[in-house]
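Hi support team,

I'm filing this because I wasn't sure whether my run with tetrahydrodeoxyuridine finished correctly. The job status page said complete, but I'd like someone to confirm that the output block is well-formed before I use it downstream. Pasting the exact inputs I used:
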Amino acid sequence: MNISDKDLIDAATAARENAYCRYSGYAVGAAIIDDNGRLHTGCNIENAAYPLGNCAEAAAIAAMVLEGGNRIVRIAVVGGSGGIGPCTPCGGCRQRIHEFANDDTVIITMDDSKDWQQYSIEELLPASFHLP
Ligand code: THU
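And here is everything the job wrote out:
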């Protein structure tokens, strides 16, 4: 299956529709293409006990691992409305993405403006922590 950047962004946008974000009102969707060419999606899921909330990227990575994916080839993250700017992955999610990224992993971010940006993990998380 050949999934274009637009298809990937559309999948993240669709996942965003399911975001459970009653506390922040900030809906995020994420979509991953893995090293097997498979698509995985996730949305943010908040909780009344605020620190228990999960980011969209974490949900998509969990789906990827569950289905046997090993590496993130491309990930799209869609969030941000009303001109506040796109949802670039939070610090924790940069580390989560790093765990499954290669040097050429593409990280796409987009808000409601429909303009999208792309980054490498080195750009988002330089001098990263990792173990051998
Ligand atoms: N959020 C994500 O899903 N991904 C990020 O990278 C940043 C933040 C979620 C967490 C919370 O549910 C809401 O956005 C507001 O912080």
